[in-house]
Design brief:
The chain has 12 helices and 2 strands. With 288 residues, the protein is an all-alpha fold. It has 2 domains: 167 residues, no CATH class; 43 residues, no CATH class. The protein has a two-stranded antiparallel ribbon. Helix 4 packs across helix 5 and helix 11 packs antiparallel against helix 12. The protein is globular, with a radius of gyration of 20 Å.
Amino acid sequence: MIPAVLYAVPAFLLLIVVEALSYRFAPDDDERGYELRDTATSLTMGAGSQVIGFPWKLVTIGLYAGLWTVAPVQLSPTSVWTWVLLFLADDLAYYWFHRTHHEVRLFWASHVVHHSSRFYNLSTALRQSWTPMTSLPFWLPLALLGIPPWMIFLQQSVSLLYQFFLHTERIRVLPRPIEWVFNTPSHHRVHHGVNAEYLDRNYGGILIVWDRLFGTFEPERAPARYGLTTNIGTYNPLRVATHEYAAIWADVRAAASWRHRLGHLFRRPGWRPLPGPAEAVRAAGGTR
C-alpha cells in the first residue's frame, strides 16, 4: 500500500517553489520567508519520514485489521454516517495525539522535529518525525469502533493534506465562521509560536473546536516567534531527528532515583526535580 500523501508530493514541492518565489517578488518585512539550509533540512526530514513510515504502515495495517475483525460492529463504508463518524473520531484522535506529544516529554522527543525550524512556511509542514511509532495508540480505538482500516488510513491522509496548507504566513485571517470552526494558518501559527502565551495551544488537525471545548485555544494576536524555547542550532537531519532523545537519555542517566527517571520520561518537557522532596516544572532543561 502506497500512502496517499506520496501522490501529493509533486504538488507540495511546486507550491513550496511558488511560495518561495512570492517572497522574492512580494516581500513582507513581518514574515521570515525561506532560508535554503532550513528548507533543505525540512525536505530531508520529510523524505526520511516517508521511507521509515512505509514499513511501519504495514505493521499498523495488521493491528488495525486485527482489531477491526473483533469489533462488536463492523461499520459499512457505504453509509454516510460511517464517514461522519470517521471524520470526527479521526480529528479527535489527532487532537489527543498532538496534545500528548506536547505534554509528555518522551512523546515530545518525536514531535519536536516538526517545531525545530525557526521559519514558518510550506516546507515546514514536511519537517516530520522519523519515529512514527508514537502515534499508534491514538487511532487503535477507531478500528475497535468497526471503521475499516483502509478508511482510517484515507482519513489520516486527508488530515495531513489539509494541514500542509496551514503552514504559511502568506494567508493572514480567513472569514470569521471558518476561523471559529476550522484550523487555519492563523491558528496554527499560534501553535508553532514560542511566545509565552502561545505555548501548548491550538492542537487541532482540521477542526479547531476541540481546542475551544478543552480549553487549549488561543487566538493570534502578537506575531509568533518560531522554533523552540531553546533552539538546537543545527541543520543536520540526524541531530534534528534525535537530539531530544539524546537529552532525555543524558537526564535519565544522571537522575538520582527512579522517580526522577520516570519524571524525565513522562512529565512535561523542561521538567526538573527540585532539591529535596518537592518537585516542580522549570523552564530550564529540554528543548521546548
